[in-house]
Amino acid sequence: TPGRVIDHISKGSLDLSELQYLVLDEADEMLRMGFAEDVEQIFQQTPPDRQVALFSATMPSQIRRMSKQYLNNPAEISVKSKTTTGANTRQRYLQVMGPHKLDALTRILEVEEFDGVIAFVRTKMATEDLADKLKSRGFQAA
Prior knowledge:
6% strand, 142 residues, Rossmann fold, 6 helices, mainly alpha, 2 domains, two-stranded parallel sheet, single chain
């Protein structure tokens, strides 16, 4: 995190005076989490001729201001995403309370026709756990 970088700079265990490249990924998230001052302090510790790559899903005014202040001749590249679903793809969203999720998913798999299903869970362990439970109920899962 930017805070850890600042911590190392303060302790003398990190010197950015000869830094050539600075990459800030998910800059909007860093600012949202309150790291704006830390990011600015990092910029101030780097040489003026360093190259900066700043990636952000959104471009709030604070990022635009930082870009103008700390970047030399910045270029903005916007990627327009097409958020359409394939003609043969059906999307469904159901909100189910935690203890009922497996039973709800099982019921859907029993009554709906499908070629494939993608279930999103939070962790790798939860993915493996869900796959094991579905297999124990007679479904193919990977």
